[in-house]
Amino acid sequence: ATMPPLLSAIANAGRHGVLVKSCVVMERLGAVDRVALDKTGTLTEGAPRVAEVRVLPGSPLTEDQVLALAAAAELPSEHPLARAVVAAARERGLPLAGAEEFSSAPGRGVRALVDGRKVEVGRPGEASGAVREAEAAGRTAVEVAVDGVPVAVLGITDRLREGAPAAVAALTRLTGTAPTLLTGDGEPAARSVAAETGITDVRAGLLPEDKAAAVQAWEREGRRTLVVGDGVNDAPALAAAHTGIAMGRAGSDLALETADAVVVRDELATVPAVVALSRRARRLVT
Ligand code: ADP
Ligand code: MG
Question: What family does the database annotate (predicted)?
Answer without folding.
Answer: Belongs to the cation transport ATPase (P-type) (TC 3.A.3) family. Type IB subfamily.
